[in-house]
Design brief:
Number of domains of chain A: 1
Shape of chain B: globular
Mean pLDDT of chain A: 93
Strand order of the largest sheet of chain A: 5-4-6-7-1-8-12-11-9-10
Low-confidence stretches of chain B: none
CATH superfamily of chain A: Thiolase/Chalcone synthase
Number of strands of chain B: 14
CATH architecture of the largest domain in chain B: 3-Layer(aba) Sandwich
Structural class of chain B: alpha/beta
Oligomer: heterodimer
CATH architecture of chain A: 3-Layer(aba) Sandwich
Order of helices and strands of chain A: HEHEEHHHHEHHHHHEHEHEHEHEHEHHEE
Radius of gyration of chain A: 22 Å
Radius of gyration of chain B: 21 Å
CATH topology of the largest domain in chain B: Peroxisomal Thiolase, Chain A, domain 1
Mean pLDDT of chain B: 96
Distance between the termini of chain B: 7 Å
Strand order of the largest sheet of chain B: 5-4-6-7-1-8-14-13-9-10
Strand content of chain A: 15-25%
CATH superfamily of the largest domain in chain B: Thiolase/Chalcone synthase
Shape of chain A: globular
CATH class of the largest domain in chain B: Alpha Beta
Number of domains of chain B: 2
């Protein structure tokens, strides 16, 4: 039986867990990102280190009567160019383009396709079967349905007319373009991945779950390597209006943990990792960018939207991640917090971090002031950001931070760039339905 | 004692076109009477396909004692809550303050999250000539309705379940098209094996029987156009098959760590013994004619269960009744079972209840557990003329009453995700464990 599996003794909790799987290191050999602040993790870190924000007036649609008119858009978007394939553009949506782009970037950096191309055919087949893909997908957008507006306008509420005119007025590929699992599908076809897979549509924790699930698949030897991707493009008029209605949007700026924080600003994009067993990476002679050490996930099971004020779910997610990694809080050298700029989330997150780290808290930062909240993609982009920061030994300041919110007392944040206290970074994500996840990575120089 | 945690299925809940609970669904599946009929949920008279398998008399579902919560529930969410209520009651256990963080929830959720009427209201208010004008959205009430927003979120179903049962551990929502339910249940099994949870509420829910939902499938010619003979429309493996019949509903299971279930004297339907998962990476809608993709998923499930092909005597096939799926799936069955294929009886219960899309894999996992529990394999309805390319051992017309040692359930999705789950009779599991494995 597999050594990583826990015994049936329920009292042992997770204690024997970490010791068992440190023998099988999971390394990171590729990373990719696209968001308002750049088209790679390095570009993104460079922008944030300089204190530059990507939040600006919304250009992609007429936001003049929207209650919130700013977002961190990917500017000069050219889907065909990002995909390197104009034909594929007919089969996917904006969010998918970001996901495929980030995934291909990570796969290229890891050198996976060059390696596969050099394998004899039988080994190439085994390679495909042993390469998995886990995607966190925004899913459930409104604009996918707007493709039906011309048909609805034409048929004026008559459903029988709607049915008759349907084939004449709607793209026959509509359903396929709308699949939440499109990135999983196209990245696997383009790169001949045949292994274990999943498409997680669990709002903001989707990206962290895509990495956690992928890492477990490698631990369990279901795969030798996994591409983990998350993507989202939530800057839609209807989403903005709803979020304003729920009271989550800031009017002009996202100010994580600041006394003036009053809500969130949306962003868009994608992030990706190539995770591999150490043996697979060594065999390929791959450059090791870092290591996945552990992850944890916990929900609060109370509210549909809000998180608890006492940080309960995030505290438990962090504790699970630390236990999974076999680490203590003092090992963590920097934290990329969720920091979404809403008072409820910021303050409960500060409570959670003070609860775990007390007065010896490592430097804490958040990327959302500059790149907005990418919902389904945010945790994944933050992981690529956190890894790149820790590799460069820098904790970018929250440039628009001026004064700590009274409810965030004890949180170690700054507007200045700082140095991490170790090469281990923790990334946090929280979302609707009281979901909380934490992932811990080690960065190589 | 084995060092690996095994997983017991101790609770089942079903809301399907075949019935509003487990007993009625199971009886209907065994009767081989198709549930397909003319669509009643909306005026489908202009569509190329005007039939579906609807959940009958859904107004007769037990009233949920949480009126506030139900305002945030769509049709598919109502099915999910009803089926989950049944599964929890059936298992006879629910999360308590002491153990709620050791309960997890893993669900497969459908992709159509916005009701047709709400899309139509946005069109009428902000796209009168068909062209969407974002500046007019501010005057459309439904675009400011927080409850409509809540229902539209991909996490909405999970959120309602987490709150209703007070689950506080790992939670995930997945969507890999028609493989969603199978992958959600497979994930749930792994959470217990990994020691991340002791009990998991897992399942799938979907309802695409709406104008936009049906449109997507009509445009692809994926649904059977046999409007004049709905009862015959879903005929997996038949040479004349011409598409699937759209169904709707939910299936939920309570999974438990085996030893915990045994210790509390729970009734164990079956062991959920293996999970196999693969990508076809071939085409977005098709799997390879050779069965490549499903072959790996089935082999992985068998291996993951610590079993061999000789252990299996029932396969609940994906069997959608589309020309492509059934041929490719049968090629996979032939490749995996080879000369042993006559020992594996095969049926697609989609012949009776249609295709429940994101719920299908979870509902069919429940069917496998019931089949093992009762020693009865449900039949494949409507098979008159076997497609020579579907040369597998199909259970025709009447249930096959025979003890099932192990069973497999396939779920193969658009986009190329394949899921296969393996189930074992609990007495067999006890024997294996007594022998020290």
């Amino acid at each position: 039986m597999k050594s990583w599996q826990q015994g049936t003794d329920m009292t042992s909790d997770f204690t024997n867990h970490a010791a068992n799987h440190t023998a099988n290191k999971i390394v990171i050999t590729g990373t990719g990102a696209i968001c308002g602040a750049g088209q790679s993790p390095a570009e993104m870190v460079a922008r944030l280190v300089k204190g530059e924000t990507a939040v600006a007036h919304i250009q992609n649609w007429d936001a003049s009567s929207s209650p919130c008119q700013v977002a961190a858009e990917v500017v000069d978007y050219n889907g065909g160019k990002l995909l390197g394939d104009r034909k594929l553009l007919k089969l996917v949506r904006r969010s998918d383009v970001f996901g495929i782009y980030a995934g291909e970037q990570a796969i290229a950096q890891a050198g996976l396709n060059a390696w596969r191309a050099a394998l004899p055919e039988s080994e190439a087949l085994n390679y495909a079967d042993q390469t998995g893909c886990y995607v966190g997908s925004g899913g459930g957008a409104f604009e996918v349905n707007y493709d039906y507006f011309p048909l609805m306008a034409e048929t004026g509420g008559s459903l029988s007319e709607f049915g008759r005119e349907l084939p004449n007025m709607v793209n026959p590929m509509w359903l396929l373009r709308s699949l939440p699992n499109n990135v999983l599908c196209h990245v696997s076809i383009r790169n001949q991945l045949k292994g274990v897979n999943g498409c997680i549509t669990h709002h903001t924790t989707s990206g962290l779950l895509a990495v956690i699930e992928g890492a477990w698949a490698i631990r369990e030897k279901q795969a030798d390597r996994v591409i983990s991707i998350a993507h989202d493009a939530p800057i839609e008029p209807q989403t903005v209006l709803y979020l304003h209605q729920v009271g989550l949007l800031a009017s002009d700026a996202l100010l994580p943990f600041d006394a003036q924080h009053n809500g969130c600003v949306l962003g868009e994009g994608a992030g990706a990792f190539v995770l591999e067993s150490e043996a697979s990476a060594q065999e390929r002679g791959a450059v090791l960018l870092g290591e996945y050490l552990g992850g944890g996930d916990a929900v609060e099971g109370e509210s549909l939207f809000d998180v608890r004020a006492d940080g309960d779910g995030e505290i438990r997610a962090i504790k699970l991640a630390l236990k999974d990694a076999g680490l203590t809080p003092s090992d963590i050298g920097m934290i990329v917090a969720h920091g979404n700029g809403t008072p409820g989330s910021d303050e409960s997150e500060a409570v959670a971090l003070v609860n775990i780290f007390g007065e010896s808290m490592p430097p804490v930062t958040s990327s959302k002031w500059a790149i907005g909240h990418l919902f389904g993609a945010s945790g994944m982009v933050d992981m690529t950001f956190g890894l790149e920061c820790a590799r460069q030994k820098i904790v970018p300041g929250i440039a628009n931070f001026t004064q700590l919110a009274p409810g965030c007392k004890g949180l170690n944040v700054s507007s200045e760039n700082r140095e991490p206290t170790s090469n281990i970074v923790m990334i946090l994500a929280r979302g609707f339905a009281g979901t909380n996840a934490a992932v811990i990575l080690r960065a190589n120089p | 004692m084995s060092s690996a945690r095994r997983v017991a299925i101790t609770g089942i809940g079903l809301v399907t076109p075949a019935g509003l609970d487990v007993a009625s669904t199971w009886a209907r599946l065994k009767s081989a009477q198709s549930c397909a009929g003319p669509i009643s949920l909306f005026d489908a008279s202009g569509f190329s396909t005007r039939i579906a398998a609807e959940v009958p008399n859904s107004q007769d579902l037990p009233e949920i004692d949480d009126r506030k919560l139900m305002k945030y529930a769509s049709r598919a969410h109502r099915f999910a809550i009803a089926a989950a209520d049944q599964a929890i009651a059936d298992a006879g256990i629910r999360p308590t303050t002491a153990d709620a963080d050791r309960w997890a929830c893993s669900v497969g959720a459908g992709m159509m999250t916005v009701a047709h009427e709400e899309i139509a209201m946005v069109q009428a208010g902000a796209a009168r000539d068909g062209e969407f004008n974002p500046t007019q959205l501010i005057d459309v009430p439904v675009a400011k309705d927080v409850m409509a927003f809540s229902r539209s979120l991909s996490t909405a179903g999970a959120a309602l379940l987490l709150r209703r049962f007070g689950i506080r551990g790992y939670a995930s929502t997945v969507h890999t098209a028609c493989a969603s339910g199978g992958q959600a249940v497979g994930t749930a099994m792994r959470l217990i094996r990994r020691g991340l949870a002791d009990r998991v509420l897992t399942g799938g829910f979907d309802s695409m029987i709406s104008p936009v939902g049906l449109s997507g499938f009509c445009l692809l010619s994926a649904v059977s156009p046999d409007n004049d003979n709905p009862q015959r429309a879903s005929r997996p493996f038949d040479a004349t098959r011409n598409g699937f019949v759209l169904g709707e509903g939910a299936g939920f299971l309570v999974l438990e760590d085996w030893q915990t279930a045994v210790n509390r004297g729970a009734r164990i339907y079956a062991e959920l013994a293996g999970d196999g998962n693969s990508l076809s990476s071939y085409r977005i809608t098709d799997s390879h004619p050779s069965g490549d993709g499903p072959i790996q998923a089935m082999r992985r499930a068998i291996q993951d269960a610590g079993a061999t092909i000789a252990d299996f005597n029932y396969l609940n096939a994906h069997g959608t009744s589309t020309p492509m799926n059934d041929r490719s799936e049968c090629a996979a069955v032939n490749a995996v079972f080879g000369d042993g294929k006559s020992n594996v009886a095969v049926s697609s219960t989609k012949s009776v209840m249609g295709h429940l899309i994101a719920a299908a894999g979870a509902v069919e996992a429940a069917v496998c557990a019931l089949a093992i529990h009762e020693g009865t394999m449900p039949p494949n309805a409507n098979l008159q003329q076997l497609d020579p390319d579907c040369d597998v051992n199909i259970i025709r017309d009447a249930p096959l009453v025979r003890p099932i040692h192990m069973a497999l359930s396939n779920s193969l999705g658009f986009g190329g995700s394949n899921s296969c789950l393996a189930f074992r009779h609990p007495e067999l599991t006890n024997e294996i464990m007594a022998a020290g494995y």
